[in-house]
Design goal:
The complex is a heterodimer of chains A (about 280) and B (about 325). The two termini of chain A are about 35 Å apart. Helix content of chain A is about 75%, strand content about 0%. Chain A is globular. Chain A is mainly α and about 280 residues long. Chain A has one domain. Chain B is α/β, with parallel strands linked by helices and about 325 residues long. Among the domains of chain B are: about 140 residues, Rossmann fold (3-Layer(aba) Sandwich); about 60 residues, Alpha-Beta Plaits (2-Layer Sandwich), CATH 3.30.70. Helices cover about 30% and strands about 25% of the residues of chain B. In chain B, the strands form three sheets. In chain B, strands 6-7-8-3-9-10 form a six-stranded mixed sheet, sandwiched between helices. Chain B has a four-stranded antiparallel sheet with strand order 2-1-4-5, with helices on one face. In chain B, helix 2 packs across helix 3 and helix 3 crosses helix 4. The longest helix of chain B has 16 residues. The two termini of chain B are about 25 Å apart. The chains are: A mainly alpha (about 280), B alpha/beta (about 325). Chains A and B meet through helix 1, helix 4, helix 5 and helix 11 of A and helix 2, helix 4 and helix 5 of B.
């Protein structure tokens, strides 16, 4: 494909004066929305999130029912105590990986492609661009995340009903379902912050996945009380508590405390990312 | 008007821009010339607020770049052509830039028409040729209809027709009263396009003058003289006010003398008067490219090492080591 090349510029307009006044934050939100919706990685990641989460929710809920007679009483008691966690657990455990990848990509792709220079030339104060991106991305993941959480719940509920009936009206059930979407939203910002700090896609994805999947089992190897506390305060371990229906007896943090710890991790990393964005050469 | 004052940028202990000062005036095309690695792109990035200088200032109409309210309506810039997301269409690339400035969608269609990309505007830029990417970059620069433009090597990768198109566009934009600042490492290209030249080497200013003046100064006539009595002839020529430099010729006949300041007929007369035999007397005209190479010979960053440079040639940089690029300048 070739472009038609006009021999002489058809351009006839007088040199303009700069438009006075800064562009509003609304303009930046529109700009970031165009960026996010206009690349395929967004669409594919979100489709994958929906398919993986719902698919594995159905599969694993069905498996736990299918194997009910072979499961030991302790595990049955756990399912009975936290039916929402049972339904959402497996699907979200896998589905969250797509959010880790997308969160990194929304910012690291700007660095790897060089688009960041266009972005920063348009918004030379820099942080408004980053904040607008975070707002748009978080809103998008929140909407999709809540849809996936409720869909998963209503798919898993009838499968589990024969052994453990559950409804949104049960204590902690509605909070856990809403909490699953909230967890994905904060995870999205957590991944974006790490993407902005590391600025290389592969390195940042490795770091986020390491935080989410690798660090938790490692922390459990630390013996005694220290290990228990380190494990409880890890970002994803703390964050996931809000998506469970009932607090376990030996739990260090409550559901909302855990979510608060996760938010704190994310806010600190975002603040660090903004600080470095202002300081570093682009 | 773009003003650069005492601008200095170090990367680690490497001095990329060294106390550079110049002014780019409106209503003319100003060429920014220098060999590769001279600091042209760094200077442009400093003007655009992408990199932070250690010292000095760069202002556009008196304002630092990050003080501009809607920067794309004050300055348009083309840095690297391929700095686009390969999965995004040209239309969406320009749209997000337009939205960030509060510019209407109509403006995107206008600049796409300006650069002749309307038919492929909704295709992903990953499939674009370098020339088409350059056009997207120029469209982005023109988006805010800005009174000043900074273009870094805009004709790179363009075919001859594209080069002519960019050249005409720059001239027209200058004629409309805009400030046009365009970098190149090709002297001949700048000789055709630019009204004024700013030449740098190793981050330092080498020349800041009208193009015609630079050309006149650079294409100074010289005369190649060969004679078996070269020493005697040199003396006579120097006495008459000529300047002689030896010119080796790899053993083919006697070594030549390169004479400036005297015309060939006068040299012939001097030789005849002194009874000196001449083997050759050839007037020579240095090409612009040669003149440019000569002017910047000492400041070529990545060249064949004709004059080996002593380590620590930039003592200022060595004395003040900067551990990492993450540590930027002041805000």
């Amino acid at each position: 494909m070739t472009a038609t090349s006009p021999a002489a510029p058809p351009y006839q307009e007088p040199a303009a004066r700069p438009v006075p006044g800064r562009a509003g934050f609304g303009n930046l939100l529109a700009s970031e929305w165009t960026k996010i919706r206009s690349v395929r990685s967004t669409v594919w990641s979100l489709i994958l999130l929906v398919v993986l989460t719902i698919g594995f929710t159905a599969l694993f809920t069905w498996l736990s029912v299918y194997n009910w007679d072979k499961t030991d009483p302790a595990q049955r008691a756990q399912v009975a105590a936290d039916p929402v966690g049972t339904i959402l657990g497996a699907g979200f455990y896998l589905g969250q990986l797509t959010i880790c990848v997308l969160g990194v990509l929304v910012i690291s792709a700007e660095y790897t492609t060089g688009v960041i220079r266009a972005s920063l030339m348009a918004v030379p104060r820099r942080y408004p661009m980053f904040v607008a991106k975070a707002v748009v991305f978080a809103a998008l993941v929140f909407v999709i995340g809540e849809c996936v959480a409720f869909l998963s719940f209503f798919i898993g509920k009838p499968i589990l009903a024969s052994h453990v009936p559950v409804s949104l009206g049960d204590p902690g059930a509605a909070r856990a379902v809403v909490g699953a979407g909230l967890y994905l939203t904060v995870l999205a910002l957590f991944a974006m912050a790490i993407g902005a700090l590391i600025r290389h896609t592969a390195g940042a994805i490795t770091a986020v996945i390491g935080f989410v999947l690798v660090l938790a089992p490692l922390a459990q190897l630390i013996p005694g009380k220290i290990g228990k506390y380190v494990h409880a305060y890890l970002p994803s371990e703390a964050g996931q508590l809000v998506a469970r229906q009932h607090q376990q007896a030996d739990q260090v943090l409550s559901a909302w405390q855990g979510f608060g710890v996760f938010c704190l991790w994310t806010v600190v990393l975002l603040a660090l990312a903004i600080y470095l964005l202002q300081r570093r050469d682009a | 008007m773009i003003e650069v004052r005492d601008l200095t940028k170090r990367y680690g202990d490497k001095l990329a821009v060294d106390h550079l000062s110049f002014t780019v005036e409106p209503s003319r095309v100003t060429g920014f010339l220098g060999p590769n690695g001279a600091g042209k792109s760094t200077t442009m990035r400093l003007i655009l607020g992408l990199d932070r200088p250690q010292e000095g200032t760069a202002t556009i109409d008196g304002k630092r770049y990050d003080q501009l309210a809607r920067p794309l309506t004050a300055v348009g810039a083309l840095l690297e052509a391929k700095a686009m997301h390969s999965g995004r269409s040209a239309y969406n690339h320009l749209l997000f830039l337009a939205q960030s400035q509060g510019l209407p969608r109509r403006r995107v269609d206008e600049v796409l028409a300006l650069v002749g990309l309307t038919p492929v505007a909704h295709k992903r830029t990953g499939g674009y040729s370098l020339g088409m990417s350059q056009r997207v970059g120029i469209a982005a620069a023109m988006l805010g209809n800005p009174p000043a433009l900074l273009l870094d090597e805009p004709v790179n990768g363009l075919d001859p027709e594209g080069i002519r198109w960019v050249r005409n566009l720059m001239k027209q934009l200058a004629a409309e009263g805009r400030t046009v600042f365009v970098s190149s490492h090709l002297m001949n290209e700048m000789a055709i396009t630019a009204d004024h030249l700013i030449v740098i080497g190793k981050g330092k200013l080498i020349a800041d003058c009208p193009t015609h003046e630079f050309i006149e100064r650079s294409s100074e006539r010289s005369v190649l003289v060969r004679s078996p009595q070269a020493d005697a002839l040199s003396g006579l020529i120097t006495a008459e006010g000529g300047v002689v430099t030896a010119q080796r010729t790899d053993g083919a006949g006697p070594d030549g003398l390169r004479v400036t300041g005297l015309a060939a007929p006068r040299i012939g007369e001097i030789a005849a008067a002194g009874g000196i035999v001449l083997h050759e007397l050839t007037p020579q005209l240095a090409s612009l490219e040669e003149a440019f190479m000569e002017l910047t010979a000492d400041s070529v960053e990545y060249g064949v090492p004709a004059t080996p440079q002593a380590p620590g040639a930039t003592p200022a940089a060595a004395a003040e080591p900067e551990p990492s690029a993450a540590k930027g300048g002041d805000r």
